[in-house]
Amino acid sequence: MATPPPPALTQNPGIALVLTTAPSPEVAAQLAHALVESGLAACVNLLPTGRSIYRWQGQLCNEEEVVCLIKTHRAQLKALSAKLAALHPYDVPELVALDAFAASEAYAAWIRQVTSDQVPTTPA
Fold it and tell me: Which residues does 30 contact at the CB level (< 8 Å), separation at least 6?
């Protein structure tokens, strides 16, 4: 039986992976639902609780957190950032956006389609 060819990759697909953390699975789920329901994210993966070690206000912290992987259209980053800042319980929530170098065309198209109603348009 022949192996099917890998999915076609498209370079510079216009999508981003945004990383954030939340203090609990419940808060992470609330953030994820709000971002997906608002059309600012196509999907949010919530990774099992992990440990973050960081320095905050002069203190060494060692806390359990949930990592959130947010998939969105690049044009949504500003609005997504504002919504995340408004909803997040942390004073300074993690917000790191990684531009996708390449993605399967079908997956990138799905992300663009799901978030397209919210993508700001530039007046002509």
Answer: 87
pLDDT digits (tens, 9 = 90+) for 49-59: 899 999 999 99
Q: Phi, psi at residue 2, to the nearest 5°? A: -75, 145
> Can you give the pLDDT at residue 118?
56
Kindly report the backbone phi and psi dihedral angles of residue 79, in degrees, each rounded to the nearest multiple of 5, phi listed first: -65, -40
Backbone angles phi, psi at 102, to 5 degrees: -155, 155
Half-sphere exposure in the Cβ direction for 4 (13 Å, CA): 3
Residue 32 has pLDDT above 50, yes or no: yes
Question: How many Å apart are CA 66 and CA 7, to the nearest integer?
Answer: 30
CA–CA distance, 14 with 18 (Å, rounded to integer):
13
How far is the C-alpha of 6 from the C-alpha of 104, rounded, in Å? 9
Average pLDDT over residues 31-54: 96
